Amino acid sequence: MTNRLLLKHVKAYMNEFDVTGDSRMLDSLGGSAAPIPAHNWSEGVRSFVADKILDAGVRNYQAMLNDAAGGLYKELAEGDDIIATLALGEFAAPAVGDLAYIVDGTFMGKVTSFDDRLAMISGDILSRTDIGGDWGRILYDETELVASDNGDSVDDGASSLNGGEFILHILESTAGNYAFKVQDSADGMAWADLVSWVADGSVVGVERVTKVGTIRRYVRLVATRTAGTVTIVSSYIRK
Amino acid sequence: MAGKAHIEKSFRMLVDDSAGTPRDLSADIVPGSVQGGGIVYDQLDASGISEGVRSYLAGMGDAPISCRFYMNNTPTTGAFTVINAINGDNDGGTLTMQWGEKGNAPTAGDPEFEGEYVAFMQAVDFQNQIAGFNCEFKKVQGAADPAWGTV
Questions:
Q1: How far apart are the C-alpha atoms of A52 and A224, rounded to whole Å?
Q2: Which of B66, B69, B90 best probes binding to A when mutated, by most A CB atoms within 10 angstroms?
């Protein structure tokens, strides 16, 4: 069947929280460059150039007003810095290699309302850094780790030269002590270290690391356990 | 004289990918969303005050094309894969619209509208709970005007 991505298969991670359970709807992910008229008066048909300035972020993200521990209303406040990964599963829960929209942004405001008598909060998450927001992929789907693991490889079809951003969400930790890194490969068989996160799984949180330069065709996440249990999810963008 | 019926099922839209290879994105177009094909000229009112009937001249034209695509990220051929890679690329690429007949794929002699366009991909949303995005295509600066022809 032709690929179709349904809202019910989207998982939303914001910092160290899986807020999927509170998520109700959103208006849009990402945005477009604007057209600049570029024609002269003798042209038969108007012509345009793109201004190359992308509007990035999550617009009008709407969630149920959940003030329990772990709920978005309780844990995230207006003005908070948020690194968000919205993972889009293909006919199922998101898996390694699936599409993801990633934004390093700010929660611009929390507005309450009632949607069919249910209390809601809503707001925009707009980019605040040079990463902005962009489309990427899931590097490691949400998993409870109890042992070391070499993650499944993601094949991007070709190497790239402009670096990338790698996001690690640590959602849960029980005395966790891990080392997390990204490896790349030209053939999916011989691997080399690419970047590492500082986060060791001892506490929940989110971390973004930047890779400058070449990233080979295949990438994977490697988790090396020393102690404990952690639940993580990871995403990345090739620039 | 028998007429021709060009129905939506017979429509094809081919868009150059980032390598210049035409990709048929028709299977990912949301029904009823295609707008465009043809040139619409500005209507310049050139009437004189004593004339009984207004007269007009054709000014500069516009040839925008727009549609909504499902968010198909199949490598190489999916609409999201193709359009995201060419989004805002001011070098543009060829966009071809073809109208086949009576539910059949376009064949030689069927109408075709083609030109060099820049893609402006809009934000992804979830209409009817299915991910998709609108896309506007506008004529590339310096290119020849898009034109009607045949397949």
A1: 41
A2: B90
pLDDT in tens, A187-204: 999 999 999 999 999 999
DSSP A32: -
Q: What one-character DSSP code corresponds to residue A7?
A: G
Mean pLDDT per 10-residue segment, chain B (151 residues): 83 97 97 94 94 92 96 94 95 96 94 96 94 97 94 96
Which residues in chain B are closer than 8 Å to A50, comparing Cβ atoms?
Answer: 88-90, 118, 120
Q: What angle do CA A151, A153, A156 make, to 5 degrees?
A: 145
Q: Which two tokens stand for residue A24?
A: 């109700």
Amino acid at A160: S
- CB of A1 within 8 Å of a chain B CB? The answer is no
ipTM over 0.90: no
- Minimum distance, in Å, between the CA of residue B51 and any CA atom of chain A: 28
The predicted model scores a pTM of 0.89
Alpha-carbon distance B35 to B102, whole Å?
20
Scan for tokens 């081919």, then name that residue: B14
